Amino acid sequence: MARPGPGRAGSARRGLGERRPPTWEISDSDAEGPAGVETPARGRDPAEERRPAAEALRRLRPGQAVRRLAVLVDPAVLEDAGADTLMEALHALGCEPRAEPQRPARSLRWSRESPDPCPRGVPPEVWAEDEPHVLLLLEPEEFVRGVLQLTQVRGPTCPVPWVTPESPARPHLAVIGLDAYLWSQKPSAQETQQPEHPAVTRAEVAVGWPEVEEALVRLQLWANVDVLLVASWQELSQHVCAFTKALAQRPFKQARESGAFPFCTSGRWAAGEQVARDGTGLRRAWWRQVRQFNRVSPAVADAIVSAFPSPRLLQQAYMACGTEQERLGLLADLPVKTGKGVPPRRVGPDLSRRVCLFLTTTDPDLLLDLGS
């Protein structure tokens, strides 16, 4: 049997007198760990955390969202010869027009395809499948009968045609060719003198543009119903496409405005100016405030801040002026340095007037920039 060497015996003797701190050896097998024991999870990569939000935002982009929007068209609308213009315009827009029976008849609705699952960080109401809007197409004759009913019966209790109180959708009306119809129904001078059907003639004469405008006001005030009067299917198609674009852009705007203070932008430009307790930075903050006026260059802001290093000094100068005209033109003649070899120009009366009104007026609704 081999005898233990001196080194090994020495280490054993040291172990009797003092304990050595425990040590661990890292090997490939240690990475897996014993069965049934979970290894601690690593922190998620920030890029991986931002990826779902970026994907949700990409789906909400108007160019992507319009493809997820379907226009449901009642088959009765397609029976009209001009309906092909509407369908071609919707196909060119990129949305999906589908022929499905609607209530009421001759109407259009909008439906949005909801993603599954809904992206995190986006309010659920943004992905609402059914839009609360319906566009009802009316023939001129039908609209004229409704105008007679609205104008003959007085009072807010008058039932509004084409509107059912139990319907949750907000109705919009569209009439094609109403102007041409009213002109065609206008009786001639001979028919006015010798009417064969006095009752029918009186009913036709009773409806003109004054009555139509009165009915439009009543529809807007009583039932919050918008009426679109167009001359052709081309105009109707343009309106439907514009309305579809607006519905496609709404989820993106709602998601962007759902955060706190959506009007604040990120980045160095919106970080503001740091001001120390001893006042360091106030002059720079005053310079940036002057720069916020429309059509103010850095050179113009330098000229104003050099002459009046703080807004308080400028207010004191306004108080020392004797007349209103003197106050409005206090900054007009300040020279502005534009570069070497170039004669200096002035601040000008327009900016002088705007700065004066900004610091002296007490009217919160006053419009400072007349050129905006």
UniProtKB/TrEMBL annotation:
Composition bias type Basic and acidic residues, residue spans: 41-58
Name listed for the protein in its UniProt record: Structure-specific endonuclease subunit EME2
Main location: nucleus
Domain ERCC4 as annotated: residue spans: 70-319
One MF annotation (Gene Ontology) recorded for this entry: crossover junction DNA endonuclease activity
Assembly, per entry: Part of the heterodimeric MUS81-EME2 complex; the complex forms specifically during the DNA replication phase of the cell cycle.
Chain intervals with Low complexity compositional bias: 1-14
Entry-linked InterPro entries: EME1/EME2_C, ERCC4_domain, Mms4/EME1/EME2, XPF_nuclease_EME2
Subcellular location: Nucleus
Region (Disordered): 1-58, 99-124
Family: Belongs to the EME1/MMS4 family.
One GO-annotated biological process of the protein: mitotic intra-S DNA damage checkpoint signaling
Gene: EME2
Native species: Bos indicus x Bos taurus
Assigned GO CC terms: Holliday junction resolvase complex; nucleus
Pfam families listed in its UniProt record: EME1-MUS81_C (PF21292)
Record keyword Transmembrane helix present: no
Keyword field: DNA damage, DNA recombination, DNA repair, Nucleus
